[in-house]
Specification:
The protein is mainly α. The protein has a single domain (13-196, 207-414), classed as Growth Hormone, Chain: A (Up-down Bundle), CATH 1.20.1250. Helix content is 80%, strand content 0%. It is built from 16 helices and no strands. The chain has helices spanning 4-12, 14-45, 48-75, 78-94, 105-129, 139-167, 170-189, 209-220, 224-237, 244-253, 257-283, 287-307, 314-342, 345-376, 379-401, 403-407. The radius of gyration is 20 Å and the shape is globular. It starts with a helix and ends in an 8-residue tail after the last helix.
Length: 415
């Protein structure tokens, strides 16, 4: 894995470097808060299902807001939209400080939901903007960096978040989260390059919410490979609720409290960081390489999570989590690159919102199922059940996407 192309891009393109740094700042704060909040929910309620509700609200709120966010990204100035999303999240993030007792935990859950709405505006807008900040030749490199930003800060933010929560208290983690949005907004304000092309209303008219969803679905139906990229994250999300069980294993099965949650979430982030780099180096970035890389990611995730419950120590468990999320990070970056290259700028925001909306809705349901399973059956059985769902979804996605390798771009009507 050579670092020079990535460092070279950051040096040559300061506008992209600001967007990348803004993503790092925002994601770091998110994971500081998430680790602390999962520990708080487990402490106040003792329920795995209630703790998993944190992740359900994060993904469910994101899914619910995505259709509107896509319209905003294709209609308004994307730089101003991201700055507004960051600034609006600062006071919301500070609301976590008010959750002190079981009776006030609802405040934290409401804040989680509102933060998810802000993320639903920010993330698809950022992804839709990326092809306008870098050249076509640099797009794969830029996409790997942006794709790995989430994993980078999950690894750093989750690890430090667990340490800060255990030593300085959870309030410190919540304040860091609020400050991260201010830093992100400041960085994006400095981007002067346009983040969208001049609008052509005749080519991709921006209507209402229902019309926006229909336009994105209609475009995805134009070719099998576009549909495969859009459905990749959603298929992966079917079993991703297993992530909610990391809090249970870190805190209770391995008895390591907030620090244990931080270790396993950090391993998840490190995997998501490394996965995009490995996938690009091994599989390549042409359409065939993207399809093969996504298929391999399903195998990695299912296999590692099948072994995870057998780990005798938390450090060994962390290795399996790392391997699983190398697959997760790879498929996220590869599918995003595929959408960026195959989607015109005028509709790209809506297509990314469809993509993100579908996956977050699926993850929300999957997370809720995982949390309920953890209260009904032993945690190990719950993990194996979710790993089985990853296998089933992966087989379905590969069966749908694999013909692309033999036939090239094919319309869905040619199935």
């Amino acid at each position: 894995m050579r670092s020079s192309p990535y460092l070279s891009l950051l040096r040559r393109n300061p506008e992209f470097a600001r967007l990348y740094a803004a993503q790092l700042a925002s994601f770091a704060g998110d994971w500081f808060a998430t680790v602390a909040l999962l520990g708080l929910a487990l402490q106040l309620t003792g329920s795995s299902a209630v703790a998993s509700l944190v992740l359900v609200l994060q993904t469910g709120g994101f899914a619910a807001a995505s259709p509107i966010a896509g319209l905003l990204a294709d209609r308004f100035d994307r730089r101003r939209l991201m700055v507004a999303a960051d600034l609006a999240r600062i006071p919301v993030a500070l609301a976590f400080l008010l959750a002190r007792e079981p009776e006030t935990l609802w405040i934290a859950f409401a804040a989680v939901l509102l933060l998810a709405v802000g993320a639903a505006v920010f993330e698809p807008t950022s992804s839709a903007s990326l092809p306008n900040l870098v050249s076509d030749e640099d797009l794969p490199t830029a996409n790997v960096l942006i794709g790995s930003a989430w994993g980078t800060m999950l690894a750093v933010g989750a690890a430090l978040g667990g340490i800060v929560a255990a030593t300085l208290g959870r309030d410190a983690a919540f304040v860091v989260n609020a400050l991260s949005f201010a830093v992100s907004a400041w960085l994006i304000l400095g981007i002067r390059q346009p983040l969208q092309e001049p609008r052509d209303p005749a080519a991709h008219p921006v209507g209402g919410v229902r019309g926006g969803i229909a336009a994105a679905i209609g475009f995805a139906r134009t070719s099998r490979i576009v549909a495969a990229f859009v459905l990749s994250k959603t298929s992966f999300g079917v079993g991703t609720g297993v992530v909610a069980l990391l809090a249970v294993f870190g805190s209770e099965v391995f008895g390591a409290g907030d620090a244990g949650i931080g270790i396993l979430f950090a391993a998840r982030g490190l995997g998501a960081l490394v996965g995009p780099f490995v996938a690009r180096s091994v599989m390549g970035t042409d359409d065939a390489g993207l399809i093969r890389g996504i298929a391999a990611s399903f195998v990695a995730a299912a296999g590692c999570y099948a072994l995870f419950p057998l780990a005798p120590q938390i450090w060994i468990a962390a290795i399996f989590v790392f391997g699983a999320h190398c697959g997760g990070g790879a498929q996220w970056a590869l599918s995003s690159l595929g959408i960026q290259r195959s989607t015109p700028d005028g509709i790209r925001g809506r297509v990314f919102s469809l993509d993100y909306g579908l996956v977050t809705m699926t993850i929300a349901v999957s997370t809720l199922i995982a949390g309920l399973l953890a209260d009904l059956v032993p945690a190990r059985i719950a993990v194996w059940t979710m790993a089985g769902l990853i296998v089933a979804a992966g087989v379905g996605w590969i069966a749908f996407a694999w013909p692309v390798l033999a036939r090239g771009r094919a319309t869905l009507e040619d199935r």
